[in-house]
Amino acid sequence: MKKFASYLALSSIVLGTACSKSDNQADPGTGGGGTTTPTTVDIRGVISGDKKFSKDTIYRLRGYVYVTNNAKLTIDAGTKIVSNKDSAGVLVIYKGSQILANGTADAPIVFTSNEKTPTPGDLGGVVLVGKATGNGNHKVLEGGVSADYNAFGGTDDADNSGVLKYVRIEYAGKAVNPGDEVNGLSLYAVGSGTTIDYVQVVRGLDDAFEIFGGAVNAKHLIAYNCADDDFDFDDGYHGKIQFAVSVKDPAFTDAKGTTGDISNNFEVDNVNPSNLPFASTPNTFPTLSNFTAVGPNNATGTSSDYGYGMRWRRGAKFILANSIVIGGQKAGLDLDDDSTVSYYKQGISKFYNSFLHAYGKPFQVDKQVLNPVTLDSAGLASLTTGANLSVYYSNYAEIKLTDPFANAAPKLQPASGSPALTKAAKFDAGLLSDAHFEKVTYIGAFDGTNDWTAKWAVWGR
Fold first, then answer.
1. Record's superkingdom (predicted)?
2. What is the dihedral of CA 7, 9, 13, 15, to 10 degrees?
3. How far is the C-alpha of 365 from the C-alpha of 372, rounded, in Å?
4. What angle do CA 169, 181, 93 make, to 5 degrees?
5. pLDDT tens, 145-155?
6. Biggest alpha carbon distance in the chain?
7. Is the pTM of this model over 0.85?
8. pLDDT for 32
9. What is the C-alpha separation between 91 and 64, in angstroms, rounded?
10. What angle do CA 401, 265, 213 make, to 5 degrees?
11. Measuring CA to CA, which residue among 344, 295, 291 is closest to residue 316?
């Protein structure tokens, strides 16, 4: 694609109820009830100089939009960025450039559909591209990105791609080819200088959050009713995340075709073995704490393409601590491949000080080729509930979350008497002692009193 200056054209489209159908917050620029109709501006091509999106204007992405040449895109709190299905707009913040999207709980920044009846895939998604380290599993960006802007990565783990704070991304997902998609939020080799906090991906056609390498840290993430994996990490991602939610719509998965793919709350790889050896470095090794992940739990109409609460495989390492994972369809905790299993047996990887429930098998180990196997399912259960201090519940009700499977309005706070409030959180494994992690006392994403999703997040979509 040729590089060309960003093109702004005033649209003759007047947005009224079509906006409110895809965003139940007050429309930006109306003062939450005024009569002013925001102007709509089309955004195309390349933004190569600093630019600002203001809340009194609606911005419509037309196809792929690239922010490049070290430019800064500043987005005011309360701004709405929309897309129509005919072009499924994708915003790419390329290496060296920054997005400064500082919303607030009362005025989130919203990327959403511009269709009267919003559906997944109306918006392509948001992509941040950085200069941090990865292992080369993916050579270029996925999802049909221009060859001028599809390289990623470098040597600077402290690289700064900007700020996403109080941001919603709704109805995203763009499948170019099987296994070649744009996700809700894609982070390619993004560095730890970037701020990702209070971000919700809603009703996405593919993954909610996919992180390809890099060292970005995050807090307060919500994946709600997305079709594929909610937290998908690979390519040597080695950052830290605390306070996150994954909620699955039992009936909604993406088209799998003949790929054999399945949809999970977590899917974490180091590399694809058709690309690189499992031991390729840096290893995928996220450190995660205070997640609440809710699978379909075999509710009426559950898609046959649902898989696991957690799928750790292909040479990945991990720490997931102080978390609640319930309702996994085929299995709760699944480990695949000898190297991943070995890391868990050695205590390098841990599902630690957490709660597990599953409709299917609670513990599963697959795809080992060594004989005898490194660890079987019984050994995984013993290690997890023993040295790793986690608890398996055959009945999710014993965890006493208020109403986690009410998909249209999930209530994820622990009720009075919940073991999530009485079992002390621990921050003594791996990098959990790092200052990124707030040393809270509870298990899961919520403390039973404070709801950090209030005002800015949405449900029932």
1. Bacteria
2. 70
3. 13
4. 55
5. 999 999 999 99
6. 71
7. yes
8. 44
9. 6
10. 130
11. 344
Give the tokens for residue 17: 């109820």
Q: How many CB atoms lie within 10 A of CB 57?
A: 19
What letter would DSSP give residue 147?
G
What does the block give as tokens for 452? Answer: 């950090």
Which residue has 């868990």 as its token pair? Answer: 344
Buried b (16+ CB within 10 A) or exposed e, 351-377: bbbbbbbbbbbbbbbeebeeeeebbeb
Between CA 128 and CA 117 the distance in angstroms is 28
The whole-angstrom separation of Cα 267 and Cα 135 is 18
Amino acid at 233: F
Distance in angstroms (rounded) separating the CA atoms of residues 244 and 205: 20
Question: Residue 438 has which token pair?
Answer: 């707030």
Tokens of 377: 């399912």
In whole angstroms, what separates CA 83 from the centre of its chain? Answer: 20
Q: Could you report the per-residue pLDDT of 269-318, keeping only the tens digit for each?
A: 999 999 999 999 999 999 999 999 999 999 999 999 999 999 999 999 99
| Percent of the chain scoring above 70 in pLDDT | 92
